[in-house]
Amino acid sequence: MDTKDKIKVMLDSLQAFYPAASLELNYSSAFELLIAVILSAQCTDARVNQVTQILFKKYKSPQDYIEVDLEELENDIRPSGFYRNKAKLIRGCCETLIRDYESEVPVNIQDMISLPGVGRKTAAMVLGNASAVQQGIAVDTHVKRVVQRLGISPHVEVDKIEQNLMRLVHPEKWTFFSNATILFGRNICQSRKPRCSECPFKDWCPSPDKTI
DNA sequence: CTCCCGATAT
DNA sequence: ATATCAGGAG
Predict the structure, then answer these.
(1) Minimum CA–C1' distance nucleotide for A47
(2) Which of A115, A130, A145 is the last residue of a domain?
(3) Residues A53-87: tens digit of each pLDDT
(4) Packing angle, helices A120-130 and A30-39, rounded to 10
(5) Prediction pTM value
(6) Out of A111, A121, A144, A203, which one is annotated catalytic?
(7) The dihedral of CA A151, A154, A156, A158: what is its sign?
(8) Is nucleic acid strand C under 7 Å from A45's C-beta?
(9) A210 classed as catalytic
(10) What is the pLDDT of residue A45?
C-alpha cells in the first residue's frame, strides 16, 4: 500500500472512530488555549486542566500575567512541570502579544511562531482549534509516533514530518487529522503498550507490536 | 545536543 | 528503576 492510500484509509477510519475529534484541553478563547498548550509540554491534559481551572479565574489577559511576580506565576503553574521555563515563556509570550499584537492572539502561523514558547506544534494547535485557521499540522509526540509506525513518513524531524503530511492531507482536514491522530495515538497506538489487536490498520502496519 | 520538571505507568 | 507525558529554547 502506498503512502497516499495509507492516508486515505487512515482518514476514513479516524472519521469513524472520532467523528468530532477535538482537544481535551479546557479553554474558552484562543488566548486561553495558547496558555494551556504551552503548559501541556511534557504533561498530561488532565493535569493542565487542573492547573488552568484555577489559573484562568485569576489571569484573564496578557497584562495579568506580567503584572504578578514571576514567583507567583511559577507557583500557580507548578504542577504542570517545567514551571520555571514555562513561567518565563508565558511572560515573554504575553509581553510580545501586548507589544506587537495589541494583546490579541495572531491568526497566522508566522506571527504565532514568533512568540516565545510557541513552535509550529503549538501554533498549529491554537490556530486550528481556537481560531479556525488551518495553516499547519500539529505534529506532537503522538502524531510522530503513529506516522512513524505506520510507515507514512521516513523522517524523524517533526518539521519534515509536518511538511510531508501537509502534502498528503487536504488542508481542510489538517486540524481534524491532527486531533484524531493524537486521540488514536493516545488510546490505541500507545507508546508503551500499543493495543494492536484493536487497531484498524494492523493488517498493513509495518511496525506490529511496538517496534518503534 | 541538553536542559527544564514532577507525576504516573510499567 | 526508568520511560514517558499535547515541546521549545539555548
Answers:
(1) B7
(2) A130
(3) 999 999 999 999 999 999 999 999 999 999 999 99
(4) 150
(5) 0.93
(6) A121
(7) negative
(8) yes
(9) no
(10) 86
